[in-house]
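Pilot study result, target chain (268 residues):
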Amino acid sequence: MLPARLRSAAAAVSLVPLLFAASACKIGGDDKDAKGGTGGGKADPAAAAQPAAGSGAPSGGGSSGAAVSGGGAAKALTADQLKAALLVQSDMPSGWTVKPGSTVSPSKLNATPAGCQAIVDLVSGDPKAAPTATGNGVLTNGSSKDAQYFVSMEQYSGVATKLLDDVVKETGPGSSCGTVNATDGDNAFIYKAARSDRTPKSLGDAVLYLDITTSQPGQSAELPGRMQIVRSGEVLIQFVGMQKSGKPEWVPDAVVKAQVEKIKAAQK
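Predicted structure:
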């Protein structure tokens, strides 16, 4: 069972069949029974948090991979409002497509070391801090046949900052969370996650870039991916790309900006 947050992406392409044999996170594609997964990347000791001008950085501090800016109160969005704010085809650059994804129940995977639970929760969805509403979409790049991308939008109530801040801490310099084992008792996975050295963009109230890979114990196949998380008030917007071999490209900046702006407009 892989985190359901990536179920839709895996459903659309045949990437590492073993990893896609089962799933358990927060996103489903058109085929609700399809399976999928994601995970981590090489640890980069230089990757850390960078505050935007006039704001405080998330715990962890540093030079790249994350950024925070100030933000005023924003209204809570319903599931219908999140779905209405999803990207449409006219927002996509040439060669890219978007379609709505379905929502599946979050799974609870326990992390080892226990102090790395935030990374696992980000991927699998943590019932203790479940979002009040969600909206999802599957993105496809026609030039990358063995890659799949998706966006998830999750409305929280008073915990979005902490959820993201905890991941910043666990992926910072000196962290023991470079490799994390996760299990729900029946299924086990190995995540590797580190902040990317990509220069943060000024988007929303906070931005975090992660290089990630997912594998299973005893198996040599690893599924590489990239994850970008933008916080706008109490909404976490995640953009994830997975690819069978090599690193998938980041979701284009113009696409990310368009999605963030739609959420910001809905929050007014």
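One observation from the pilot: The domain at 38-99+111-267 is CATH 3.40.1000 (Protein Transport Mog1p; Chain A). A full batch analysis is planned for the follow-on phase.
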